[in-house]
Amino acid sequence: MFKNILLPVDGSEYGLSQVKHAIDLAKTYNGKIMLLHVVDIKIVEGPLLRDLTFLSEAVTDFEYHNEIKSSLEEKGKLILQKIGAVCEEAQVAFETKLLPGIISNTIAENAKMADIVIMGKRGENAAFGTAFLGTVAEAATRLSNKPVMLVDEVYKKVEKVLFAYDGTASSNKALQLLAQMALASKYELTVINVSDEESEGRTILEEAVSYLESYNIKPEQILKSGDVVNVIIESAEAAGYDAIMMGAYGHSAIHQMLLGSITTLLVRAAKVPVVLYR
């Protein structure tokens, strides 16, 4: 199922957690990890870089451009070597790619040949940012039609999964993916639906449970009302789930902006990895 696992790495503190989650999947599915580092062309060729060349008459624009480019490429090689060494020690197959490009676009392009993408919730500049969810992670998730796993800095093996199901098309795709993952990984599963209409919520919840039971998977069930994000987060924390899984969009057009407002808020608030599928 997950034969090709794309792991974009940028040197952030999330890298070790990313690769450990990737190794878990690679061992379960006998897959290969594709390590990718993107040299950001916005840094190499952007207007700020060109402006900086005027600070010193001794350095030409061409020389300065090449110096920065070489420095970023060398940094990328070191990052790939470091993460590659972890893969090698774990005895899983891997390959490395060092590519120039716009980071989110390049990740999405390479995701076409991957079965899943594993990213940190925030990138190497997280300490200097104000957003809870990294702009690259959000953009790459929006651009890719593959499952994306957004992980935290601290790794914990995923054994207990809370699946948020709302009956939408993306949620249904995530349900089908979950069934396949649960068969291979033997996750302890719970399906949750948050709805202020009990009858409607029960129908949606039973739809997901019935589908999983057709695979001989017997999930626990939670039906609650209230604020969707708060209920899911509180439920995940109360029972100690290792990951949350869901479709990437909610019902309305407003929710479908960027990742979808509910999805974005949930990823920001979650203290465990979140697997999204749109």
TrEMBL record:
Q: Which Pfam families match?
A: Usp
Every UspA domain range: 1-151, 159-278
Q: Which family does it belong to?
A: Belongs to the universal stress protein A family.
**Which protein, by its recorded name, is this?**
UspA domain-containing protein
Which species expresses this protein natively? Candidatus Wallbacteria bacterium GWC2_49_35
